[in-house]
Design brief:
Layout: E1 2-7, H1 18-28, E2 35-42, E3 50-53, E4 56-61, H2 70-88, E5 95-99, H3 107-116, E6 120-124, H4 137-153, E7 156-159, H5 162-172, E8 177-179, H6 193-201, E9 209-213, H7 222-230, E10 237-241, H8 248-257, E11 265-269, H9 274-282, E12 286-289, H10 298-306, E13 310-313, H11 316-322, E14 327-329, H12 334-339, H13 347-359, H14 362-375
Parallel strand pairs: 1-2, 1-5, 2-4, 5-6, 6-7, 7-8, 9-10, 9-12, 10-11, 12-13, 13-14
Antiparallel strand pairs: 3-4
Length: about 375
Amino acid sequence: MKHVFIIGSRGLPGKYGGFETFTDQLVSHKISSQIKYHVANLSDTENGTHFDYRGADVFNVNPIKAGGARVIFYDIKALNLALKICADEKIERPVFYILGNTIGAIISYYARKIHKIGGILFVNPDGLEWRRSKWSKPIQKYLKFSEKMMTRKADLIISDNQGIEDYLKSEYGDVTSKVLAYGTETIVSQPSEADDKWFDDHQITKGHYFLMVGRFVPENNFELLIKSFMASTTTSDLVIVTNYEDNPFYESLRASTSFEQDKRVKFVGTVYDKNLLLKIRENAQAYLHGHEVGGTNPSLLEAMWSSRQNLVLDVTFNRNVVLDSAVLFDRDNLTEKINLSETVSEDLQKRSQEIILSSYTWPIIVQQYEDLFLNYEN
């Protein structure tokens, strides 16, 4: 039996972002009976207790409340509990898969502990986290240092995009790395009167809107996309699904774009209902993707499966995913691409779905991970 410890997601069931969805899908689509997953779960009340989730052993971790630094204490405490589980259950040659670079400053200590029991350390660096503008300069420096240390101490770096692997090898030299992508679901929305009411309530006409979906942060290029859209001649709306409420960036964006003067621009908040979000994607005239920091973005994969057409910022990470299935834009020509979007071939959606089915379904991704967990030799 190969025991695999997942450290760094907020736990199961997956309710939040990419790492949580990945962990949930990895567990839910498990193929091999020779793998046992142990998953750390962030809790505000429980510590050291366990519960079962689809065959995975989920252990609760309650770190101290320390603001943004709590994630560091969470990973440390999770690793300590995981090592204790290995000792108590006499687990041999476990795999520790750490998601993110948070504890890079002290990873040497834990790498020694893991290797002492015959274990293997895998790390997923989660894109270029240190470049995100939401972090202050000191935190960016810490995250960059953490990235460096994790890269040096891990037995294997798992990058979810070829661009991440290329960056790490360029930055740090001979990095032991493997590219294993993120996945997405290949489903269609189900009929729902409540979903149809959402379109009516927001005065949105199906098939006549451009769509943006993503975290409300500057590096997703909201300003560029909104300004470019406002300069276009399209009569369609721009529907923005994001967590803008009570976010200072919203007022900054209002000041820099004056979007409130254009009735086509519609911020609709976050959509948590999966079926509704899927329907919103399916009925968009086109999806606009301005993300430029990170690897294989989950929202882009979802759009490739569900949206009729994708207009995607031309950066390495995005190109590696969409290949020839999207309209690429740069900072100077998005308005032109929007104006021409109605003339783009419908074959693009077919090509996008072919790419998803060949490389990015969860069963494919899970099989690749299980092969690695079972067969990796240090």
